Amino acid sequence: MPEHTNHGIECHEFDSLLADAIDGILSGAELDRFQAHARTCSACGPLLAEAKAGRNWLKGLSEVNPPANLINNILASTTGIDSQRLRNNVPTPQRTSLWERMQAWVSGVVQPVFAQTWASVRQPRFAMSFGMAFFSISVALSVLGVKPADLSHVSLRPAAIRHTYYNTQARVVRYYENIRFVYEVESRVRELKRNVEPVQPAPNEAAPEKKEHKDDTTQQPEQKQERNYSQTENHLVLASARLGPSVNDAFRKNDPSVVLVSTYRRFV
Amino acid sequence: MEDVQVIAMLVRRCVAGDAGAWEEIVQTYNRRIYNICYRFAGSANDAEDLTQEVFIKMYRTLSSYDASKGAFVTWVTTITRNLLVDHFRKTKQDRLTDSIDAPVSAQEDAQPLSEQIHDQSAPPDAHVRSREAGETVHAALGKLSPELREAVILRDLQDLDYREIATVLKVPEGTVKSRINRGRAELARLLQRTYRQVM
User: Fold this and answer.
1) Given this model, what pLDDT does residue A77 score?
2) Number of folded domains in chain B?
3) Do B181 and A82 lie within an 8 Å CB cutoff?
4) Which of A50, A62, A120 has its CB closest to that of B134?
5) How crowded is the C-beta side of B35, counted as CA atoms within 13 Å?
């Protein structure tokens, strides 16, 4: 656009007044100077005519009616079902930074969820439930001797947390095992189990016979750790079992051999 | 244009979880947003999808609206415009558009707008209010550069004032007026060329 002055108005000034002139805001001397410039300037005159024509064309456009199902689709979309376009348009990672994505996530997800949650929380029945829960928790804490002031001294370092955890666990185990009632119940249960359980022949009793004991010249069963367990079992069974005739005989002979007792156990 | 207090109350109710308030907002603004999208994107299908996207974004960010910072319609229009710009970048339409600053290419002369829109009949004055004329102007609008197009749409089709447009476009008011003037003039030139080809 050539910059020259006609009737006290320059072309760039004409351009800034053009929109107001078309809107009909200009008046008085300013309008006169504007119109005079438009008549004489070879560049601004056609521009005014074209801008007026363009505005008239645009004003002739009528509003289009949205699709009938648009409102339903919008309401469905805002309640969780997105459109095909949204599914196709995955946001490109290079255009948004992590901070922007976090902000968008917070504003897009957390805030609406929090708003809806807050709206439901404000109902009286939820308020009563929360009140009761708070009361129960505070009573439980006071019974356990937990004071809120102590929480400020708690060290949250991982090593301190681990140390506290093992200390607490050990204290609980000690406390539980030292309860007299628990100790008695456990010992009685153990005793009952030993009395009631049928004696199973040890699966590896016959096996040693078949096994070649190349180094064993005494022809005695292998000295294994199970032997101690079997001896203990035999003594316990002997102490609690009813004395049958064969057992009595054995006792009379003062020879309660292991073979005799284990045979008796098989017939019980 | 809008009762500020009524809108602020609607927004507050909506943020508090009132589904009825949200439906009222959708019913009030869906036509306006759809028309902006349709005039800018050019296609009814794109406009429908874009309108849904605008409302989804509105729904998610409604709690961030501050009535003291501006009118609700300006906030809604800003969201719409931002999504339209994103859509424009994705679809790469900027390669197909020309502006008043760009010279008319030989390709454009070889395939004038009149052939693309199949308007072969009467003179322009008789067609202003007809459907065919509307399609002609709509097609010409799509030939404007996005900066000029959004400016004339907001001013001449949505009747926003210059200050609101400046807020939406984030440019000074003087730039807004300049873009509107250039957009109107370029549209008139495009249509004159079209009808010259027809006649």
Assistant:
1) 83
2) 2
3) no
4) A62
5) 15
Residue A246 has pLDDT above 60, yes or no: no
Residue B2 touches partner A, C-beta closer than 8 Å:
no
Instruction: Among B91, B111, B139, identify where a domain stops.
Output: B91
pLDDT in tens, A163-179: 889 988 998 888 887 88
Query: Domain limits at A190?
Result: 155-197
Of B26, B35, B152, the CB nearest to A58: B152
* Within a domain: A76: no
Q: Are A73 and A85 in contact (CB under 8 A)?
A: no
Q: How far apart are CA B64 and CA B120, in angstroms?
A: 50
For residue A88, report the phi and psi dihedrals to the nearest 5 degrees: -75, -35
Taking the model in full, what pTM does it have?
A: 0.53
Chain B residue numbers touching A86 (CB-CB < 8 A):
49, 52-53, 56
ipTM > 0.90 for the complex: no
**Model confidence at B173: pLDDT above 90:** yes
What angle do helix axes B19-41 and B72-91 make, rounded to 10 degrees?
50
Same domain, B23 and B117: no
Tens of pLDDT, residues B85-127? 998 888 865 555 554 444 444 344 444 454 444 444 555 555 5
